[in-house]
Specification:
By secondary structure, the chain is α/β, with parallel strands linked by helices. It is built from eleven helices and 14 strands. The chain has helices at residues 19-31, 58-69, 83-94, 111-123, 139-146, 166-172, 195-208, 272-282, 290-302, 305-327, 359-370, and strands at residues 2-6, 9-13, 41-42, 106-109, 129-134, 150-157, 163-164, 177-183, 211-215, 240-245, 258-263, 332-333, 347-348, 372-373. The strands form four sheets. It has an eight-stranded mixed β-sheet with strand order 4-11-10-9-8-5-6-7. Helix 1 (19-31) packs across helix 11 and helix 4 (111-123) crosses helix 5 (139-146). The two termini are 14 Å apart. This is TYROSINE AMINOTRANSFERASE. One of its GO terms (molecular function) is L-tyrosine-2-oxoglutarate transaminase activity. The modification N6-(pyridoxal phosphate)lysine is found at residue 248. It holds the Pfam family Aminotran_1_2.
Amino acid sequence: MENGAVNGYEMETPKNITIKGILSLLMESIDDDKNHSRSVISLGMGDPTAHSCFHTTHVAQEAVVDALQSDKFNGYAPTVGLPQTRRAIAEYLSFDLPYKLSSDDVFITSGCTQAIDVALTMLARPGANILLPRPGFPIYELCAAFRSLEVRHFDLLPEKGFEADLDAIAALADQNTVALVIINPGNPCGNVYSYQHLKRIAETAEKLKILVIADEVYGHLAFGRNPFVPMGSFGSIVPVLTLGSLSKRWMVPGWRLGWFVTSDPSGMFRNPKVVERIKKYFDILGGPATFIQEAVPRILEQTDEVFFKRTINILKQTSDICCDRIKEIPCISCPHKPEGSMAVMMKLNLLLLEDISDDIDFCFKLAREESVIILPGKK
């Protein structure tokens, strides 16, 4: 943490680097090079709209336009979200679950990032710790630092398709552990967990008496041997907080429409005090625009399956191309071919590289010399 004084009080600022932070530094390194004339190829941001092959559906566009032009959704929405939006998301998620969610289980957030903030804020207490995957998504570490949650990392095992190291999870957890986080489909590893592995995660969490935070922002974007299985399928074994959004599957990250869902058929999260705590926190949050929320039921109900299949086909084709090209580069390898999401984790062989100290050094020199931006795997 870095310190700074405000009104005489010392304020600590987390040192955690974010994806946007490292991208800004990489872009600055290109801008500082007066001799570069190449167009920048940015492969570091999970924004599908940056690429011309990805577009959202006409249904989504028309639903938003109609909601806006109706002139009925210019006011404030309930802080937990419009009732019809919550109900539609509950029905959408229930389709893949062995039980039915209700609208009361769903809270609308401004993207999945806000859902992450809600989850960690609800669990934070003095002395608490949380188990995060490594490699993982840096926003979790940053949010945990602001909430004074101690972070403990468990490794994802590349030799096992980046499965979670369950023995490490058991060794790391103690009486102050509040949750473990899984990201499925995986970011940044591109893995998709099998039904059996997810069940073992649930059983491990239940044994340790901790809940699971399931980040499923890339839900259904699976194109390998394992189909996408929501962690909520095991909600009867262990309570699950499901985080998701429209961003990736519908190619609309800028619409900032996400959800925080209590996937818990046993009813732990229906405790009146727990519900009241969640609702009160949402009272201080700013959710998505009301007209965007109103468009959600129509988007979820009317999007054609052809749209989803086209997206999966593009992701599979580009993944194959990427991995084939990586094989042609002696100093880079792919420990596990991506099977989902929009990311791939590569391994550098520093012995085959001259004047490169680590992955961070490699990324900055690649940006300066070739105007190609990728992200380092280190935090």
